[in-house]
Amino acid sequence: MTDSGQMTCECTDVDGAACQPLRAEPLDNARGVDLAAGFKALGDPHRVAILHLLAVTAEPVCVVDVERHIDLAQSTISHHLKTLVEAGIISRERRGKWSYYSIEDERLAGLGVGIDRFVRIAARAT
Predict the structure, then answer these.
(1) Is residue 92 part of a domain?
(2) How far apart are CA 117 and CA 122, in angstroms?
């Protein structure tokens, strides 16, 4: 890494030619941890299905409706909802004895910005 923080490479290939220097700033560790936590929470198809259900509904969704639409045991759905809440991807609101869930737009948008950045960087590199 150079003094400016850019990543560099000092290796050579089998023909003795030097590698192309990497012209990229390293990903900030805190941002990497944040993105990894969000992507990990989305790394289960049932959680993606729950997120889809919330995304296509304009209002917060009652846990009972989530259970009706996702073919899993109630305890498993609760686990997936808790994981998404802890990752900040969805929020939970208590109304009497029921919980209602909705998407945290800014958090989900932040994950989208992160993946979009990776895609744009990769596209420039090819």
Answers:
(1) yes
(2) 9
